[in-house]
Design brief:
The protein has about 325 residues and is mainly beta. The chain has 2 domains: about 160 residues, Jelly Rolls (Sandwich), CATH 2.60.120; about 120 residues, Immunoglobulin-like, CATH 2.60.40. The chain is about 10% helix and about 35% strand. It has 3 helices and 22 strands. Strands 3-5-10-7-8 form a 5-stranded mixed beta sheet, with no helix packed on it. Strands 12-21-20-16-17 form a 5-stranded mixed beta sheet. A 4-stranded antiparallel beta sheet has the order 4-11-6-9, with no helix packed on it. The two termini are about 40 Å apart.
Length: about 325
């Protein structure tokens, strides 16, 4: 049963969750003194490839604790990236920061200057009064999210734009994934020997026939991102599972192999399917899993409330009907 969908962003062969805050006023950043300023709380925009984002930096503090605006951009390792900001004053600055945790989340309480969330990579403040006040060229060292931080170092208001070019990053298509389709609470026996089946649901804009079956990999995103190896599909077939007239793709994965390879364990609460279309476009989808033990007799042991069978529901309806007759 499909319980929830989680938006994620592809990062090469791995995937990350993305947290993007509102596009409102200027964000806060630890100043160059790296001490007591509030952490980043606003992301002014996100680029999933090349493009331009503009904004206005509100008046703030001068150096060393000036305000910053922030733009997230994505690149693949080895991309030759140009980041340019054209501020309306001669005293603008631009810094590029690495996503230390590689989770795409830049909003938090830990000081980025100590490497918990962000690591300083490059800075360029021309300060020369020209129209191109800041320009940074660099080779992306990893595939994932980067942060461009724009400052007006005299503390005044400033209009700016950030232009990113040279990125080859392609964002993924989010697919509708339904683990154990049908009336199920998505329980998976930790020492089960069967097949965990899941459906990739088609829609008018997404044809499952375009999927490269050999590229599909499944596992707990926390475990996989921590180094575990996701598992490839062991079976696949086409079937209209939700009766919308479109063929869906039903794929299966060996439960024992998932557990043995570390792609699922007792702590898993989510399963993530990644892969590619035949043209190389990445795809990703997620759904909840509920891991349960299994006793020696092979019966599932779970505290979840069992789903009523058709017979049980019919019996309840019959008893209610008889009770109404007695009342009259």
């Amino acid at each position: 049963m499909r319980i929830q969908r989680i938006i994620v962003v592809a990062v090469g062969t791995s995937f990350m969750m993305l947290c993007v805050a509102g596009l409102a006023s200027a964000g806060h950043f630890y100043g160059s003194s790296g001490s007591n300023d509030p952490p980043i709380d606003v992301i002014n925009g996100t680029l999933f490839g090349n493009g331009t984002i503009a904004g206005t930096l509100a008046a703030g503090l001068p150096q060393p604790n000036e305000n910053f605006d922030h733009v997230v951009f994505f690149a693949n390792a080895g991309d030759s990236i140009t980041v340019d900001t054209n501020g309306s004053t001669a005293d603008s600055g631009l810094a590029i920061l690495e996503d230390t945790t590689k989770d795409g989340i830049f909003v938090g309480d830990a000081p980025p200057n100590v490497g918990t969330e962000l690591t300083f990579l490059f800075s360029n403040d021309s300060g020369g009064g020209g129209s191109d006040n800041s320009l940074i060229n660099f080779s992306a060292t990893y595939t994932g999210a980067y942060l461009a931080s724009i400052a007006e170092q005299s503390g005044g208001e400033m209009e700016w734009f950030v232009n990113v070019s040279g990125s080859t990053f392609v964002p993924p298509i989010e697919i509708a994934l339904d683990i154990k389709p049908g009336p199920s609470n998505n329980t998976v026996a930790l020492n089960g020997n069967g097949t965990l089946r899941m459906a990739i649901l088609a829609n008018e804009e997404f044809n499952v026939m375009d999927i490269n079956i050999g590229s599909l990999l499944f596992g707990d995103p926390i475990l996989v991102d921590g180094g575990a190896t996701p598992l490839g599909a062991t079976s696949d077939r086409l079937r209209d599972l939700n009766h919308d007239g479109l063929d869906d793709l039903l794929v299966g994965f060996s439960i024992s192999d998932l557990v043995a390879g570390g792609a699922l364990d007792a702590s898993s609460v989510e399963g993530r399917l990644t892969g590619e279309l035949l043209d190389g476009t990445p795809i990703v989808g997620s759904d909840i899993v509920r891991m349960v033990p299994q006793n020696n007799g092979g019966a599932l042991v779970t505290s979840a409330v069992p789903e009523p069978s058709t017979c049980t529901l019919a019996l309840v309806a019959l008893c209610l009907a008889m009770g109404r007759r007695r009342a009259f």
